[in-house]
Amino acid sequence: PSCxxxxxxxxxxxxxITRGHTYDPQSFTYALKTPAFYVGMMGxxxxxxxxxxxxxxxxxxxxQVESAYAPIGESIGAIDASExxxxxxxxxxxxxxxxxxxxxxxxxxxxx
Length: 112
Hints:
- The protein is mainly alpha-helical.
- The protein has five helices and two strands, in the order βαβαααα.
- β1, α1 and β2 (38-41) form a beta-alpha-beta unit.
- α1 crosses α2 (45-57).
- The longest helix is centred in the C-terminal third of the chain and has 19 residues, at 81-99.
- It is globular and about 50 Å long.
């Protein structure tokens, strides 16, 4: 399916992680134009700066670009792929829980 067919809503989170970063500019620009409440992108500061410029040149506002999480992931000193994956998932959980507050059921956390 094309990106237009993805049906992204205001309740969705989008992570831009393309093989070799080949389609990051186009994917990031598309993602910023959706109603998704989270857009994150993997990459170095240098690569991301180029993608940000591309997005601005292709109709994204500075506010849209600045709202993105880039580089993606919580800052935990991740080095290898599994740690980077953990950092990304941790950020997704963190942002999701900030948006959708859930009352903690402490009793269910303590098992006899």
